[in-house]
Write a structure and sequence with these properties.
By secondary structure, the chain is α/β, with parallel strands linked by helices. The chain has seven helices and eleven strands.
């Protein structure tokens, strides 16, 4: 399922309450300080960390393919008295009337793109929007497969209105050749005794350092930074960040 369809309806509604971690704004502020403004966040979702960067005076635009997530972002921006410039576009079809000194993804959002061809098209569009001397920051990771004993695991919480929210891992298919992992997730909300639910397939398409650099070079970009956060890049559980500049 494409991100523009996955992050809609009940998933967009439950996303903030059930996500496993929050994106800190500091690493992206440091990146913008070094690379320059204006900045563009790709896959900005419902506004984390973009809105915090705006609060701190950074000139940041946002792009996401989900209308529902952008609706939530605009609502949060209004509540915070912020003027947020956002666009609803797919990454591989990015076509904005601006160029940017800093383009970044907050988290490994690029792994939501289903295959290398779509990633290549996205990198080409990033290159087309990168100002002279600008840089792009791309976090990457390789997911661990879910152990069979953890199938059926439930993540649940109670929201501010007392509704019960939960997401359950139903099944998972992993393909090492295509570097994809498809997890069937069941999202549920029970409010005032009324239950709503939807099953969604969450696709991750991961990269190795070599496969990603090859795509970047084909898109007219070069790797100028490589920072490892965890593990051996390309191995399950590893996390690393690549900085790209124009050739």
């Amino acid at each position: 399922m494409e991100p523009s369809h996955f992050y809609t309806g009940i998933v967009a509604e439950l996303y903030g309450a059930l996500k496993s971690s929050a994106q800190s704004w500091e690493p992206y502020a440091a990146f913008i300080d070094q690379s320059g403004q204006p900045a563009l966040e790709l896959g900005c979702g419902d506004g984390e960390p973009m809105l915090e960067l705006l609060r701190r005076g950074y000139e940041v635009h946002g792009v996401d393919s989900s209308k529902d997530m952008l609706s939530r972002l605009r609502s949060f921006a209004r509540e915070g008295g912020l003027d947020a410039t956002v666009f609803c576009q797919r990454m591989e079809q990015l076509d904005l009337p601006f160029s940017y000194r800093s383009i970044f993804l907050a988290g490994p959002t690029i792994t939501l793109l289903p295959d290398d061809e779509t990633v290549l098209a996205s990198l080409e569009r990033i290159r087309a929007h990168l100002a002279e001397g600008g840089s792009t920051l791309v976090p990457l990771f390789v997911p661990r497969g879910t152990p069979p004993g953890d199938m059926g695991a439930i993540n649940e919480t109670i929201d501010a209105d007392g509704a019960e929210l939960r997401v359950t891992t139903v099944s998972q298919i992993r393909d090492e050749v295509s570097r994809t992992q498809t997890t069937l997730l069941r999202y549920e909300k029970t409010a005032d005794g009324v239950r709503s639910a939807d099953d969604r397939e969450w696709l991750i398409h991961w990269h190795t350092p070599e496969s990603f650099e090859e795509l970047a070079v084909r898109a007219g970009l070069r790797v100028t930074g490589f920072d490892v956060q965890d593990g051996t890049p390309g191995e399950p559980g590893s996390e690393w960040t690549v900085t790209l500049s124009g050739v």
